[in-house]
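ok trying again, last paste got cut off:
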Amino acid sequence: MVGIETNKLRYLFAWSTHFFTSLGAVCGFLAIIEIGRHEWFWAFIWMALTVFIDSIDGFFARMYRVKELIPNFDGALLDNIIDYFTYVIVPASFLYEANIVPQKLNLVSAFMITISSAYQFCQKDAKTEDHWFKGFPSYWNIVIFYLYMLELPAIANFLIILILTVLIFVPFYYLYPSRTSVYPLLNVLLVIGWALCISISMFLYPKHKILIYFSLLYVIYYFVFSIYWSYKRKRVQSQCRY
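nice, full thing came through this time. structure:
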């Protein structure tokens, strides 16, 4: 009897994990509503919640062994569908409505984001077996957040989007903060610190710029770390061939 109750509880936790993941789509939809109203602050709040959900749902899925308990339900597919919506469609909508690039390039920029990311999401090795992202991961919600908060010239914003779009197709390996096995504790602590910094900056808006600039230190670290380990990884692979 105890065993039956335990199994029911495990199934409940497993399905609850999928439900928790699906809440990301709800938050993304609420962000779209706020974008339509030009309520940028609340749009960012909902977008931040989608990132929070995506950051921890995998931990719960592994802890409750969701794949084993519910083998006929594709949690990875659910995650990818919601990620494309929240990391790509929602920020593309924000970009289009907020006019942070030259107005004539609004639609072009949104198309660049959505099409390049659709390509990336369909690559079988977009996430490697040893937990790196291949090509610039479609963190467009974070990119759009910085472009809006930094108040850079519109043409500079477009050039940043163009460069990052190209980097999706360049086979560098990017840090997966919660799973990459190289310096895992350091990377988790740094990303938590970055998230706290971003959260505080949002509530200090419009007196936010000092913290936003400070948070860019982590962005620099992220790219330097990723590029360094990309070259090191390629060097090791080339040595293994001989």
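cool. The beta strands are 132-134, 173-175. The chain has one domain: 2-240.
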